[in-house]
Design goal:
Length: 302
């Protein structure tokens, strides 16, 4: 797997022959073109939950048939990519490893991993339960492509979920970069609490107290975005502070967005996002692609 001549890491798309994987391929092609990055098409035919050191060992004939099927799937995806962008550098790989294992392995040195939406006919790579372990363990951003895609570019803003902690910086950084690349506005959503507001605030709560909370959270959100707005002056930003849980707010915003970006972990409204109900809800129900960015102590990757 090679970077571009400029050192730009590749965009990886995982394919399994399903329609969601082809939608992911089309999205990955467009993203690679935007980033001036090569495209890397990957398929895997091994098993993540079987140790070949154990007595249970897949027959060689079974493995060979799976390998040939994976090679055919990769060729089909490559043909789609070359038809869409003839000048785009494209590499391919068929791995004997399990899908989760190989995706976690390549995640350490690629720009991002692109997966098809969960659900549909399970063929062992990007649908079903695979996306959640990859989201949780990848060392690069992971995009789950779902929503309104019918082979046409999606319109609307980029949406980012901001939890108010320094650990959300990576998600903010990627969201600003994506909005700038696409020439669209950015909607930054901050939720005051990741719980049902009806259970937190009774009808007897003072209106003034709730307004004070909103004002404080608006100030916090503005502070988190200030430096990035200076770095990306071309990006128009809409700040939204909501009382509802972030899951519902992000799902609603996905109806008009072309991409939703969320951080992988942090405090506040998005604590435990990758392994929690919010990320799973987005992966299964969002109406646009979703990018999950695992945060690192050194901050966002460029």
């Amino acid at each position: 797997m090679n970077a571009s001549p400029t050192g730009n890491p590749p965009v990886v798309v995982a394919v399994d022959g399903s329609e969601p994987a082809l939608a992911a391929t089309r999205w990955a092609v467009e993203e690679a073109v935007r980033l001036h990055a090569p495209l890397f098409i990957l398929s895997a035919y091994g098993l993540d939950d079987v140790s070949f050191a154990m007595r249970v060992y897949p027959p060689q004939e079974w493995l060979e048939a799976k390998k040939q099927a994976a090679e055919h799937i990769v060729r089909d995806a490559e043909a789609v990519a070359r038809e869409m962008a003839p000048d785009l550098p494209v590499q391919t790989r068929v791995s004997p490893l399990g899908s989760v294992s190989v995706l976690r392995e390549v995640s350490t040195h690629v720009r991002m991993i692109v997966l098809g939406k969960p659900g549909g006919v399970v063929r062992g790579l990007v649908v079903g339960s695979t996306s959640i372990p990859v989201l949780a363990g990848a060392e690069c951003p992971v995009v789950v492509v779902r929503g309104r895609d019918r082979g046409r570019p999606q319109e609307g803003p980029v949406v980012v979920g901001v939890d108010g902690s320094p650990m959300s910086e990576a998600a903010i950084a990627h969201a600003f970069a994506e909005a700038s690349l696409r020439g669209v506005p950015l909607v930054a959503l901050h939720s005051c609490h990741d719980a049902d507001p009806a259970g937190l605030f009774s009808e007897g709560s003072a209106y003034f107290e709730w307004e004070s909370v909103i004002t404080a959270e608006e100030r916090l959100l503005a502070e988190r975005l200030a430096g990035w707005q200076e770095r990306y002056p071309d990006v128009e930003v809409e700040r939204v502070v909501a009382r509802d849980r972030p899951r519902q707010q992000l799902l609603e915003l996905s109806n008009k967005a072309q991409l939703v970006v969320v951080g992988g972990r942090g405090r506040g409204g998005f604590a435990g996002l990758v392994l929690g109900s919010t990320s799973q809800a987005l992966a299964h129900h969002a109406n646009c692609p979703v990018m999950v960015v695992r945060t690192h102590p050194e901050g966002a990757r460029s």
